UniProtKB/TrEMBL annotation:
Keyword Transport appears in the UniProt entry: no
UniProt source species: Crotalaria pallida
Annotated protein name in UniProt: SWIM-type domain-containing protein
PROSITE patterns assigned to the protein according to its UniProt record, in alphabetical order: ZF_SWIM
GO molecular function, one term: zinc ion binding
Length: 133
C-alpha cells in the first residue's frame, strides 16, 4: 500500500463527504485501493451496521460496527487507528498487509454518507464499552 493510494482514498472520501453521495467512479477508485475489504465495508453500510456513539457530557465519540459473520459481533472501531476485530491485529498490525480493516472503511464511508446510526450514552457507559475491547 503506497502513500499515493492513501491520499487518493482520502481525497475520494472527502469528495463523498461533501456531496453526501457516492458515484460509480468513486466506488471504483475505492474498490481498486481497498479490494475485498471495500466490498465487505459497503455491505456493512448497506445493512446500517455502523453506530456513532457520543458520550455525554464529555462529547467523546466512538464507533461500533456490526460484523458480517453470523454471530453479528460488534467491534469498537476508530477509523484512523484502531479496530477491535481479529483482522485488524492479524492483517494490519502484525503483517502490515492491509492499510486498514473493513470496519474502518465502513466507518469512513458511513460517516461520509451520513449513514451512521446516532446513539447517545453516558460517559460511564462509554467507559464500560471500552473495557470490553
Ligand atoms: Zn475491524
Amino acid at each position: 500500500m503506497s502513500g499515493t493510494s492513501i491520499s487518493v482514498a482520502e481525497a475520494t472520501l472527502k469528495e463523498i463527504e461533501s456531496a453526501h453521495a457516492v458515484n460509480d467512479d468513486q466506488l471504483w477508485t475505492l474498490h481498486f485501493i481497498f479490494g475485498k475489504n471495500f466490498e465487505g465495508a459497503t455491505r456493512i453500510v448497506d445493512q446500517r451496521g455502523i453506530k456513532r456513539i457520543t458520550a455525554e457530557p464529555s462529547g467523546r465519540v466512538i464507533f461500533q460496527v456490526t460484523g458480517e459473520s453470523r454471530r453479528k459481533d460488534q467491534y469498537v472501531c476508530f477509523p484512523e487507528n484502531f479496530c477491535a476485530c481479529y483482522s485488524f491485529f492479524y492483517d494490519v498490525v502484525n503483517r502490515g498487509e492491509q492499510l486498514c480493516c473493513k470496519h474502518q472503511i465502513a466507518v469512513r464511508l458511513a460517516t461520509s454518507l451520513g449513514a451512521c446510526i446516532e446513539v447517545k450514552v453516558s460517559d460511564e457507559e462509554l467507559a464500560l464499552l471500552l473495557c470490553k475491547i
